[in-house]
């Protein structure tokens, strides 16, 4: 029999993969990888604040990521600093402030490695339920805005001229990414989260010819990576989060290899 | 009776502390093609964004006909190679259309049968036509084209402007074309507005080349190009109604001995 913690981790991982695949497509199309990293890094600040205020850590990370995402939107309105400079400042300040605060807490023992690289034992049933319910909500929102988001991705001003609420779409997208990061933190860890958003869509691109199939395929590949990664981790006793990312990478390389064959058949 | 679609009234625009537009007036009527020309940095794109409502003017007012629908063809549209997007799906952005409607739009712009082709695999001319097809699917009352001739050869440009002219006649929509180049937009334009932060001159294409303000802004060389074009255009029309490369070259050579040019 499989131990219960493995089942919890797998369920949470599947829910994360189902959302991270389609959402990650936008991260790839819009070149937002660095934005994802920034939110992920500042999750450590969320963890520290959660410990300080004695609230649920997943909730604390979700709230912190959402606040940082809104801060990014706000700061991007000014034209003085380039976006990536801004994100660099926020990413590393987040992680540094988190570490300093943790140091100040002193006596409280914190499993820093667990947060940075994931700790499957930390995934509780309530996290699984929150991830599944949150995942369904995020997918519904994404589905609702799907075409408009693609349109705004192509050309912001063209979309704006034709009445698309570009600003609102951007905020919604960023908030959804923030929530995925909070949900994935325990399983894959702060430093590895963005890979769940990027590697499956990148792998799926090789095999697909429409935005919709790419999103679906990315979710599938993500789910496969979680399953293979956890199975490997269980049998060979490797860290779960890193094993998932390595599996995703292996799938990506596999897709790169068979991509040209598929493309020849589809002619697109 | 002419119906004004958009009227820009004494609009000024300050961008980052510098005056991008200074008391500019511009109208586009139904069924009219207006070309907005001017050198780089003249504020053409800013004015277009104001017309489209993407920007709000610092000063002045913009009237739009009630319920005005417009389509905008941007100057450049770089589609990330990671986004798998066929022409048929692109035409469905942001709202889906029936297969027959999409085929008809592609046929109208002379790009039939491209539905399954990836957007990234289109040539410059095909891409431009597909962009136009998508714009037309919205059935716009006002069509706004920002530097539509980029990345297309001269023959393609001439064909494209003939196409715009035909669409305007068939659909009766207003068209606002932005260009940095007067002789490109000559063929179909009703009215040319020359912008250099303020409107420095406006009129029909035939009179623009001789306008002192136009000559001052673009230099005599560009003004001569207009004269050559006008000459070439007359010839091509007389023969086939179309402008082909042979005529263009003939016209160019001939232009050196043209009395109009010597006068200029």
Task: Provide structural commentary.
The complex is a heterodimer of chains A (268) and B (264). By secondary structure, chain A is mainly alpha-helical. Chain A has a domain at 4-189: ABC transporter involved in vitamin B12 uptake, BtuC (Orthogonal Bundle). Helix content of chain A is 82%, strand content 0%. Chain A is globular and about 55 Å long. With 264 residues, chain B is of the alpha/beta class. Chain B has a domain at 1-69 and 140-231: P-loop containing nucleotide triphosphate hydrolases (Rossmann fold), CATH 3.40.50. Helices cover 41% and strands 23% of the residues of chain B. Chain B contains 10 helices and 9 strands. In chain B, the strands form 2 sheets. A 6-stranded mixed beta sheet of chain B has the order 5-6-7-3-8-9, sandwiched between helices. Chain B has a 3-stranded antiparallel beta sheet with strand order 2-1-4, covered by helices on one side. In chain B, helix 8 (212-239) packs across helix 9. The radius of gyration of chain B is 19 Å and the shape is globular. Residues 231-264 of chain B have low confidence and may be disordered.
Round the Cα radius of gyration of chain B to an integer and report it. 19 Å
Between the first and last Cα atoms of chain B, what is the distance in angstroms?
A: 38 Å
Structural class of chain A: mainly alpha
Pick out the low-confidence regions of chain B.
Answer: 231-264
Q: So, CATH architecture of the domain at 1-69 and 140-231 in chain B?
A: 3-Layer(aba) Sandwich
Which structural class fits the helix and strand makeup of chain B? alpha/beta
Percent range for β-strand residues of chain B: 15-25%
Note the main attributes of this structure.
heterodimer, A: 268 residues, mainly alpha, ABC transporter involved in vitamin B12 uptake, BtuC, 11 helices, 82% helix, globular, B: 264 residues, alpha/beta, Rossmann fold, six-stranded mixed beta sheet, three-stranded antiparallel beta sheet, 9 strands, 41% helix, disordered C terminus
């Amino acid at each position: 029999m499989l131990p219960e913690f493995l089942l919890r981790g797998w369920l949470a991982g599947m829910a994360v993969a189902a959302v991270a695949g389609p959402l990650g497509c936008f991260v790839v199309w819009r070149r937002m990888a660095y934005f994802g990293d920034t939110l992920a890094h500042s999750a450590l600040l969320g963890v520290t604040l959660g410990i300080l205020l004695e609230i649920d850590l997943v909730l604390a990370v979700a709230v912190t990521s959402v606040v940082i995402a809104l801060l990014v939107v706000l700061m991007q309105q000014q034209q003085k600093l380039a976006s990536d400079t801004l994100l660099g400042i926020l990413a590393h300040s987040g992680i540094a402030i988190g570490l300093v605060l943790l140091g100040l807490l002193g006596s409280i023992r914190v499993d820093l490695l667990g947060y940075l690289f994931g700790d499957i034992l930390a995934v509780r049933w309530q996290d699984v339920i929150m991830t599944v319910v949150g995942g369904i909500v995020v997918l519904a929102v994404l589905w609702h805005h799907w075409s408009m988001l693609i349109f705004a991705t192509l050309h912001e001003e063209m979309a704006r001229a034709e009445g698309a609420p570009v600003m609102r779409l951007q905020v919604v997208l960023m908030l959804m990414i923030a929530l995925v990061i909070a949900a994935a933190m325990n399983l894959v860890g702060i430093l590895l989260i963005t890979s769940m958003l990027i590697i499956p869509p990148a792998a799926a691109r090789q095999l697909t010819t429409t935005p919709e199939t790419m999103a679906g395929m990315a979710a599938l590949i993500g789910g496969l990576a979680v399953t293979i990664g956890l199975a490997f981790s269980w049998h060979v006793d490797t860290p779960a989060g890193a094993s998932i990312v390595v599996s995703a990478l292996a799938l990506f390389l596999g897709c790169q290899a068979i991509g040209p064959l598929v493309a020849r058949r589809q002619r697109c | 009776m002419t119906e004004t679609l958009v009227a820009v009234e004494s609009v000024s625009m300050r961008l980052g502390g510098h005056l991008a537009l200074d008391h500019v007036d511009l109208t586009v009527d139904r069924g009219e093609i207006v070309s907005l020309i001017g050198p780089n940095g003249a504020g053409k794109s800013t004015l277009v964004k104001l017309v489209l409502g993407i920007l709000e003017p610092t000063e002045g007012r913009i009237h739009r006909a009630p319920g005005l629908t417009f389509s905008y063809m941007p100057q450049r549209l770089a589609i990330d190679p990671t986004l798998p997007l066929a022409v048929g799906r692109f035409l469905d952005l942001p709202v889906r259309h029936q297969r027959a409607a999409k085929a008809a739009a592609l046929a109208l712009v002379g790009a039939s049968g491209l539905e399954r082709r990836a957007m990234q695999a289109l040539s410059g001319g095909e891409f431009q036509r597909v962009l136009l097809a998508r714009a037309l699917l919205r059935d716009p009352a006002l069509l706004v084209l920002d530097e539509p001739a980029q990345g297309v050869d001269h023959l393609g440009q001439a064909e494209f402007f003939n196409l715009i002219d035909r669409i305007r006649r068939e659909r009766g929509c207003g068209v606002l074309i932005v260009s940095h180049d007067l002789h490109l937009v000559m063929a179909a334009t009703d009215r040319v507005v020359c912008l250099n932060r303020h409107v420095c001159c406006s009129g029909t294409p035939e009179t623009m080349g001789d306008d002192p303000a136009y000559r001052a802004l673009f230099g005599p060389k560009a003004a001569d190009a207009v004269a050559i074009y006008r000459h070439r255009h007359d010839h091509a029309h007389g023969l086939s109604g179309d402008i082909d490369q042979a005529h263009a070259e003939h016209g160019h050579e001939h232009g050196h001995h043209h009395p109009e040019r010597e006068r200029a």
